[in-house]
Amino acid sequence: MLLANALRKTVFTRALLVLALSFYALSAQGAGNVPPRLVTLFTGDRSGVYYYAGGTICALVNARRWTSGVRCLTQASGGSIENLQALRRGDAGFAIVQSDWQFHAVNGTDVFEGRGPDRSLRSVMSLYPEPFSILARGTSGIARLSDIVGKRVSIGPLGSGGRATMEMVMAEMGWGAADFAHIADLRATELAKALCDGDIDAAVLVIAHPNLAVEDILSSCDIILVPVDREISDRLVAEHPFFFRYAIPGGTYPGQTSSVDTFALAATLVTTSRTPPAAVRTVAEALVDGLAEFRARHPSFAEFDTGQMLHDGLTAPLHGAARRFYEEAGLRP
């Protein structure tokens, strides 16, 4: 009798399990679910805006994972150049990159010259501006970008996108290392001490504003934000499609009463032609539907209007799935 009861209980339990699995499968099919897919979004240093932006995007994607079947994972990285290399190898599904390095990857120029053009790179959206920013000691005699010649200047860590951008500006202006008293490769977290101690006269960053690291530097001692000469900005913007004119608004930082003229890049979201259309559409749709939430997360995220997000800094072709979604949503003609 005990054995019979046990067998009946086992059969009943298995029947319930089969019924539950069948119900789940039918529910998933009825909801339009697709097989679960993990996509990895390469960003930047964990303390930077790229990582924060990536986390925000993945949160928007993951909020609909039960209906879309797409789950997003944020990956810290060394920044734009590493991210583009990871995309090309197939190690990343999506990445946030500077618009200038997107351009160079598409065209196989600069650091990508050895491998040639990346024909598979695709744009998804432009996210926010990243101004070229100069911080200088108030007593250094530096009042504009052209004044840094002959000074001690940090242009960023070796291999960083910001340093590579400054090296390109130097080449455009005909400046070499010999034109400076010293070139340093300090990280943003090291700049306040170096500037305040007088170890360097100025530092160059390509970074979104407002930024806690910049605020810390400006509040540490007599440090100022320095504008870029108008003729230099005009020349760079005219010659390079990934640059655009920009002004850091007055009041962005305590004590900064007037705007600071410069030029900027765009932080862009990219993928490859190999990424499944359903995953690309899910990410694009999550960003558009959650745009108010995205813009509320950081002041720089609210600077681009929708038209700019679908145009500025995007030199790689739009992924077909993203383009179709934007057209259906009435965001593109």
Descriptive notes:
With 333 residues, the chain is of the alpha/beta class. It folds into two domains: 37-129 and 266-328, 3-Layer(aba) Sandwich (D-Maltodextrin-Binding Protein, domain 2); 130-264, D-Maltodextrin-Binding Protein, domain 2, CATH 3.40.190. It has 13 helices and ten strands. Strands 1, 2, 3, 4, 5, 6, 7, 8, 9 and 10 form a ten-stranded mixed sheet that branches. It is globular, with a radius of gyration of 24 Å. The model is unreliable at 1-34 (pLDDT under 50).
In short:
By secondary structure, the chain is of the alpha/beta class.
Q: What is the name of the CATH topology of the largest domain?
A: D-Maltodextrin-Binding Protein, domain 2
- Going by CATH, the architecture of the largest domain would be 3-Layer(aba) Sandwich
CATH C-level label of the largest domain: Alpha Beta
Instruction: Tell me the fraction of residues in β-strands, as a range.
Output: 15-25%
| Number of continuous helical runs | 13
Note the main sheet.
10 strands, mixed
Total tally of structural domains: 2
Number of strands: 10
How confident overall, as mean pLDDT?
88
Overall body shape: globular
Termini separation comes to 74 Å
Please describe the topology of this protein:
Blueprint: H1 2-30, E1 37-42, H2 49-62, H3 65-68, E2 70-75, H4 80-89, E3 94-98, H5 99-107, E4 121-137, E5 152-154, H6 161-173, E6 182-184, H7 188-196, E7 202-206, H8 212-220, E8 223-226, H9 230-239, E9 244-248, E10 260-272, H10 277-289, H11 291-296, H12 306-309, H13 320-328
Parallel strand pairs: 1-2, 1-3, 5-6, 5-7
Antiparallel strand pairs: 3-10, 4-7, 4-8, 4-10, 9-10
Helix pairs in contact: 2-10, 7-8, 10-13
